[in-house]
Amino acid sequence: MKQQDRIVIITGAARGIGYGIAECFAAAGDRIVVADLDSQQARTAAQRLKDEASARDAVGIPCDVADRASVAAMIDGVTAQFGRLDVLVNNAGICPFRDVMEMEPDTWEKTIDVNLNGAFHCTQLAAEKMIEQGDGGRVVFITSLAENVTQPVQVDYGASKAGMRMTMVGFATALGKHGITCNAVAPGMILTDMTRHHWERPGPAEEIKRRVPVGRIGTPRDIGHAVLFLASREAEYISGITLRVDGGHQALCV
Q: Is 161 annotated in the active site?
């Protein structure tokens, strides 16, 4: 697998953690595919990567990861346009924040469909292309600290992320013989456009200093740097692990 100028698919990359991951790959000289449910946001993010992150190339492609046909069309489109696929980052996900005792079955099923089934569809179909190419590849799953700890309003999310972790481990055992590694990054508390209104309030800001040993909230690029390493040539003997990127938060809470 090439070290630079790789073709990298990042699901759910139009904003937040996914976009921060895309920025890191762009800085490394890779070509980025922003695969997102919102086609307009995907194209806008791809243009931003070229304008602001000096991406060598970036395209936005609509994709519903919960729909296998949509995933297949996205991956076929990428390989038709670029000729290959080197890295997949399974980042797309949702967290409805519903109390488990009040949760409708449809909410549970949608969370599992997007977070867990989506990662399965993307990984299986992307791996088929990587195997055909014959020179390895990298798959990184974005899980969560919720794969180990949860709360009443995140039971569906925690279940999906724990499932993602074991899906990653299973694919690592299946794909290693093809030179394809599979790993996960579990973010802690991360400042994004969606969470800024909460974490920048005085109370939560002080809570960060108390709960996170390094004394600050994480950024999407903190996650991106970890993903970039696991996708690198230097990490070719690392597979089947979850790397916590949380400023020491879970170590303090255990």
A: yes
Residues 6+ apart with CB under 8 A from 191: 199, 200, 217, 218, 219, 220
Asked whether residue 223 is assigned to any structural domain, the reply reads: yes
- Domain containing residue 241: 7-191+218-247
The tens digit of pLDDT for each residue in 4-39 reads 689 999 999 999 999 999 999 999 999 999 999 999
Query: Given 19, 70, 129, 144, which residue is catalytic?
Result: 144
* Cβ atoms of 120 and 65 closer than 8 Å: no
50 an active-site residue? no
CA 110, 116, 118, 120 dihedral sign is negative
Q: Express each pLDDT in 141-199 by its tens digit.
A: 999 998 988 899 999 999 999 999 999 999 999 999 999 999 999 999 998 887 777 77
Clarify whether 19 is annotated catalytic: no
- Which CATH number does the domain housing residue 122 bear? 3.40.50.720
Please give the model's pTM, rounded to 2 decimal places.
0.95
In a domain, 206, yes or no: no
* Residue of 161, 177, 209, 232 with catalytic role: 161
Residue 232 lies in a domain: yes
Tell me whether residue 213 is in a domain.
Answer: no
